[in-house]
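Components:
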Amino acid sequence: MSERAPETTNGGTEQRLLEAAGEIFAEHGYRNATVRQICEKAKANLAAINYHFGDKDGLYLAVLRHLNKVRSERNPINKGLSSQATAEQKLRAFISALLHRILDEDSPDWHMKLCSREMIEPTRALDTMVEESVRPLERELESIVRELLGPAADNQRVRLSALSIVGQCVFYHHCRSIISRLFPREKYGSPESIDILVEHVTRFSLAALGNMAKQNKPKAR
Amino acid sequence: MSERAPETTNGGTEQRLLEAAGEIFAEHGYRNATVRQICEKAKANLAAINYHFGDKDGLYLAVLRHLNKVRSERNPINKGLSSQATAEQKLRAFISALLHRILDEDSPDWHMKLCSREMIEPTRALDTMVEESVRPLERELESIVRELLGPAADNQRVRLSALSIVGQCVFYHHCRSIISRLFPREKYGSPESIDILVEHVTRFSLAALGNMAKQNKPKAR
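Structure:
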């Protein structure tokens, strides 16, 4: 950061580079994308990348952070919750935020394409993103699930139940090409259907956790 | 199929072509892979592809069918079930088959890589595969879920509940790069952990369906 800002740098260059890089990385993958392509698309020069992001690695990580920031600011996981919210209300809000983040149609196409690429061919940036963004969400969900399962539930059950909830949601992203072919009229995964999905995943998960909590309770002698 | 079998064709050529094509398609994607690359890898000539598969499209569809055949023969969904099996037993067997198919470590790497590619950038072959292979599985699962939810459940609830079950399973494939970073010691998704996952997904799903069935029952007056 001791370098002088190149002349092309202005308020918009960093933003333009992030958007251009996101599209190029999503299209060609981290390894095949070149900074030259990104500069051309952003109408910026190499010095601007170096100044703002250090190198290609730094730019890539900045793109993932940017993407995550946009999506999580638009759909915070505690949206509309009061401080006295019950665990049931917290679970519904969590599922709603997750499904909205995944199925947000207003986001540029490259967002989810880049996420999919990172799932199949992870880069080093994924280690950072998991610690910064995924682990806090996982902890939050585990604490809600623990409350719903009750004190008798062991850590493994809490963790696997949290994963069962996330799995039901992210399915509508990863398997959308199959779901849309299986049920072309249902439009599962479309923005109009988000409310239906939030209601269903919440109901299915609360039913599971409630029943398991009951099974866990020590029987009265 | 009126063409004469080319001289290189023998019992093993078709098989070699399927395996070579699977690897090349998984590596480069359907669009970028060339039949020349596949011929070189399989040590076969273009006439052999034409004879056995018609063209690149035909070869690609044959690869997907081959992959599906191998995985479903190894893990049939009614494995070990008697004709008097209960819906609970059928659900467990279904979940077990699905998780084993997804997490089968003895399958070549290209199997799941090719499936992932097809999810992100579907080809026309996916339409065929969904009708031939996915829809029958979905119908089977819906019929098990319908039995467990009882007659009061509507079609949408049955369908979404079936998707909730599949979502919990395929999650361990699609999100394995995140899961392995979140819980490096747990080895979720590894073959050793399959039994734990089968037990958990079955228990979570049965708890959900059982509780929802109870909520659906008309109350006695």
